[in-house]
Amino acid sequence: MNTQPTASHFIDGKYVEDTAGEVIEVIYPYTGKVIATLHAATPAIVDQALEAAKRAQKEWAGWTATERGRVLRRAAEIMRARNHDLSVLETYDTGKPYQETSVADATSGADALEYFGGLAASITGEYIPLGNDFVYTRREPLGVCVGIGAWNYPTQIACWKGAPALACGNAMVFKPSETTPLSALKVAEILFEAGAPAGVYNVIQGFGAVGAALITDPRVDKVSLTGSVPTGRKVYAAAAQGIRNVTMELGGKSPLVIFDDADLENAVSGAILGNFYSSGQVCSNGTRVFVQKGMKDAFLTRLTERLAGVKMGDPQDPGVNFGPMVSENQRDIVEGFIAKGVAEGATLVCGGKRPDMPGFFLEPTVFASVTDDMTIAREEIFGPVMSVFDFETEAEALARANDTIYGLAAGVFTADLTRAHRMAAGFAAGTCYINTYNDAPVEAPFGGSKLSGVGRENSKAAIEYYSQIKSVYVRMGDLEAPF
Ligand code: NAD
After folding, report:
1. What pLDDT is recorded for position 460?
2. How confident is the model at residue 26, as a pLDDT?
3. What lines the ligand 1 site, CB under 6 Å?
4. Which of 7, 17, 29, 399 has the most other CB atoms within 10 Å of its CB?
5. Residue 392 designated active-site
6. Which ligand 1 atom minimizes the distance to the CA of 151?
């Protein structure tokens, strides 16, 4: 596959290049080789993208919502038809195994385009009677939305932000992560091919500085970021200067609580999915696994047995189920956490090393005897590292689960129905799971509380964050005034 795009940016329906921009080398995490060379947006490119979006947004908002929805649904069909090629590209860009990308990336992007395409025409205002007079509300677009993406789900993030934004009649300028810049360009191409007017969905490349330049531009009405908490603080603060609308999808350190009465196989499956899918590079991962004392030994034994089923290797091989880390830098960061876990006295149950093979691989790693104050128990690692704790009572588990600055997700495995719902009600997190983990269907709201974020993506809830309400007062009779 030719992984070098036609040019770095997609603006106003065309590929655009400006070689004066800083070089971005795209590295395939399995070989460490450069597979594409792009350039970060210069101020001229930023200006061109925002100008195109500003102009196109007016035309797009003038279409009927049914027409806009049709474009999104057509784009979903194109994405599904090209799923194989898009998945191969996503695997080159991220290192995630094709076994995952072929079912979780372009497909979930297509789900978002289809869902919001279907919803577009139902986005309406309301009628509020006031005797003979009345008020009606119009749900209007915000204008130009900026999307800034992380590197773990590049296609999905480009669609999770783009689909609701466009459904509401906004235009978007999307900046992917500099680590994974390739697939968002395909999303832009597909939306244009599906009939979105030129300039409605633009992609420009760059490091943090390009994101920062976009946020502060007066032409921008909304900023949606998926990234880490430190970046979130900067982006939120910059957006506040212009009183911009924001959505912040940030990091997490989510708990997964397993009670003695849980089905062991399902609980182990949940812990595997919540820690090792995408080599652990998932924001909502349940990396703090609390196992009730009576189940702990059986859990660790079965988990270790099941981890023998990990197959590392060429991520393009459909038989491989565990890929390398996205970059050498990310592997170094995660190795640093593993070293701290060992130094602070956690028990390394398995993994912890680089396997003897090419690529930025790290073995799936499990620590037991972790205490709540250890670094690996408190900080987001964003790699294949699970920490296992034990607990005795429900109240203790809930208090310790919530003892974190983050609040993205939380899960519970138990056979006790009422306890499951009590735990879900008690978790301080935006997304909770009962006897499952990490499902993220477009139909359900997704987002975090506490430092994990502001706002919600997906579902009808996302409409609130990509539109604004205008109230229109109508008097049917004469108007009295005091003088
Ligand atoms: P990051 O914060 O380093 O970067 C995210 C994006 O922000 C990149 O595109 C980057 O170029 C841009 N950026 C950096 N500095 C900026 C600035 N000052 N102004 C504007 N933009 C700036 O995150 P990452 O390493 O790409 O991704 C990993 C993080 O993302 C983890 O913390 C993870 O938990 C989080 N994440 C959250 C979700 C979610 O939905 N909650 C999903 C995926 C990833």
Report:
1. 98
2. 98
3. 148-152, 175, 177-178, 207-208, 211-212, 215, 226-228, 231, 234-235, 249-252, 283, 380, 382, 408, 448, 453
4. 29
5. no
6. 26
**470 tagged catalytic:** no
Q: For residue 256, what pLDDT is reported?
A: 98
Q: Identify the active-site residue in 249, 363, 380, 394.
A: 249
**Taking a C-beta distance cutoff of 8 angstroms, is the pair 35, 92 a contact?**
yes
The ligand 1 atom nearest the CA atom of 150: 26
User: What tokens appear for 256 in the block?
Assistant: 């997964």
- Is 457 a known active-site residue? yes
**Measured from the CA of 206, which atom of ligand 1 is nearest?**
11
Angle between helices 293-307 and 264-276 (to 10 degrees): 60
Q: How far, in Å, CA of 299 to CA of 290, rounded?
A: 11
| 239-270 tens-digit pLDDT | 999 999 999 999 999 999 999 999 999 999 99
Give the pLDDT score at 178.
98
b/e 178-206 (16+ beta carbons within 10 angstroms → b): bbbbbbbbbbbbbbbebebbebbbbbbbb
Q: Which atom of ligand 1 is nearest to the CA of 227?
A: 30
Q: What's the gap in Å between 227 CA and the centre of ligand 1?
A: 2
Which of 455, 471, 404 shows the shortest CA–CA distance to 248? 455
| Predicted pLDDT of residue 236 | 98
- Nearest protein Cα to ligand 1, atom 17: 208
**What pLDDT is attached to residue 163?**
99
Express each pLDDT in 177-223 by its tens digit: 999 999 999 999 999 999 999 999 999 999 999 999 999 999 999 99
Task: Write the residue with the smallest CA distance to atom 23 of ligand 1.
Answer: 227
Measure 149 CA to ligand 1 centroid, in angstroms: 6
Confidence of residue 429 (pLDDT cuts 50, 70, 90): very high
